[in-house]
Design goal:
The complex is a heterodimer of chains A (230) and B (240). Chain A is an all-alpha fold. Chain A has helices at 2-10, 14-47, 53-63, 68-79, 94-130, 135-145, 147-163, 166-172, 182-192, 195-227. Chain A has a single domain (2-227), classed as MetI-like fold. In chain A, helix 2 (14-47) packs parallel to helix 5 (94-130) and helix 9 (182-192) packs antiparallel against helix 10 (195-227). Chain B is α/β, with parallel strands linked by helices. Chain B has a domain at 1-76 and 190-240: P-loop containing nucleotide triphosphate hydrolases (Rossmann fold, 3-Layer(aba) Sandwich), CATH 3.40.50. In chain B, strands 5-6-7-3-8-9 form a six-stranded mixed β-sheet, sandwiched between helices. The radius of gyration of chain B is 18 Å and the shape is globular. The chains are: A mainly alpha (230), B alpha/beta (240). The interface between A and B is medium-sized, with 17 and 23 residues.
């Protein structure tokens, strides 16, 4: 069974590689979008005092545990023909899958970034105030100086995106050759009893996640050493 | 000669500063004018740091007014502060200074030259590419001083800048401060080291328990102190 799985990989099965490519494209794009929203949001929550800030932090933290199927359902309702964004016609496309995953992992990145930036802000607050740096400048400075720690938040977001199946199967439809990802393919092949392909995909998914984490760890260690942070 | 929008004189008028319900500082009147450095001396917890932060504009008084050149609530574009334990930004020594230069919108074409000048001034030439956090405590203090000077301040506040330094490092910081003062920058330095005050200051403010007990020119303060507390402080008696 395992040998059949790795035979698919080694022989360069085009269907398998298409699935791997789409999975990476969807999850990495979703992580990028979630980072663009979540990192500044987390930093603002760390820096700015406003009424109801505590409640917002609790909600963002709680949303880290959002069930993917609920996100998938919400995005489905938004993008379906009768939904408010139905006119875009992107349901059952990779774009819909990216949107669903980005919504799913933005709270994870925002919540983890908020904690990291809050810790950094305690050290930097006086220094930045002394240099008359405003909120936007402070957010940019803290995001840059906290970049190595924030990499962990991005990895957590990517890990969640690449592992989830519930949201992408609802909004993507698991269409062969178009919206089928590694996780949805594993679920389908398992239900069909084609275990070699399911195992092969599972192994590839694990290898990719480990490889991306290893690259990120190396980048972090090297960057920290060069910047004098470690 | 200062520009019409000068931050000097710096005046504290009937200023009280409270944290929670605790009175930290209670100043009837204090005027800081252009000239030789002013040393703010007193025991730990006297209110020296709070005075500097009020003067910098980082704190607002609970009661009373702080004015810069006769104006209230002036943003600190012409003031800079060096904290007792400065935080180095996670970048190179040169980029730490560049950050401060950018904060005052210094033209990018001049920045490389200014960075080199400032590093030379504080004795850190050749340290441009060194990660700031890898520098020794004394080097970080001097780099932080260069970063403060990058903002081209009219008033420079220094909170115990030599407190955690060994005598050699403290002397090099004092030498830089002397050179900076000679360039016309008004220095307001808090210290509990009377030696630093004696060597640097033109006038001395003694604070104890949040109140100014004495403000006089340095020679008078050290030769003919007017208050019993000043005499005891100079005799290294404990002021409690």
């Amino acid at each position: 069974m395992f040998s059949s799985a790795f035979e698919l990989l080694i022989t360069g099965d085009p269907g398998l590689y298409r699935i791997i490519g789409l999975s990476l494209y969807v999850s990495l794009t979703a992580t990028l979008i979630a980072a663009l929203v979540g990192l500044p949001l987390g930093a603002l929550l760390a820096l700015k005092e406003f009424p109801g800030r505590g409640a917002v932090i609790v909600i963002v933290n709680a949303l880290m545990g959002m069930p993917p199927v609920v996100v998938g359902l919400a995005v489905f309702l938004l993008l379906s023909r009768s939904g408010p964004l139905g006119s875009f016609g992107i349901l059952f496309t990779p774009r819909a899958m990216i949107i669903a995953q980005a919504i799913l992992i933005t709270p994870i990145i925002a919540a983890l970034a908020r904690q990291t930036i809050a810790d950094l802000w305690v050290q930097y607050r006086d220094e930045l105030a002394g240099m008359n740096i405003g909120t936007a400048g402070s957010v940019a400075t803290l995001l840059w100086d906290g970049r190595f720690s924030l990499l962990t938040a991005l990895l957590a977001g990517f890990g969640r995106a690449s592992a989830e199946v519930g949201a992408v199967i609802i909004v993507g439809g698991n269409i062969d050759g178009f919206t089928r990802t590694m996780t949805t393919a594993i679920a389908l092949e398992t239900s069909k009893g084609d275990l070699p392909l399911a195992i092969g995909l599972g192994a590839v998914l694990l290898i990719i996640v480990i490889a991306i984490n290893a690259i990120a760890w190396t980048v972090r260690r090297t960057g920290e050493r060069l910047a004098g942070a470690a | 000669m200062r520009a019409p929008d000068s931050d000097l004189p710096l005046r504290f008028e009937r200023v009280r500063f409270e944290a929670g319900n605790r009175l930290i500082l209670d100043i009837e009147s204090l005027s800081i004018t252009n000239g030789a450095p002013t040393a703010v001396v007193g025991p730990n917890g006297a209110g020296k740091t709070t005075l500097l932060r009020l003067g910098m504009g980082l704190f607002e008084p609970t009661v009373g007014r702080v004015t810069w050149g006769g104006r209230e609530k002036v943003p600190p574009t012409r003031r800079a502060i060096l904290f007792q334990r400065p935080v180095m930004l996670m970048r190179s020594a040169a980029n730490n200074i560049d950050y401060a230069l950018a904060s005052v919108n210094a033209p990018s074409r001049d920045r490389r030259r200014k960075i080199a000048e400032l590093l030379a001034l504080v004795g850190l030439s050749g340290f441009e590419d060194r990660p700031a956090r890898r520098l020794s405590g004394g080097e970080q203090q001097r780099l932080a001083l260069a970063r403060s000077l990058a903002r081209d301040p009219e008033i420079l506040f220094l909170d115990e800048p030599t407190a955690s330094l060994d005598p050699a490092a403290a002397k090099s910081v004092e030498d830089v401060l002397r050179a900076v003062a000679e360039r016309g920058v008004k220095i307001l330095i808090s210290t509990h080291d009377l030696g630093t005050a004696r060597r640097l200051a033109g006038d001395v403010v003694l604070i104890h328990r949040g109140k100014i007990l004495e403000h006089s020119v340095s020679e008078v303060f050290f030769k003919e102190p007017r208050t019993e507390e000043a005499r005891r402080f100079q005799a290294s008696d404990l002021l409690i």
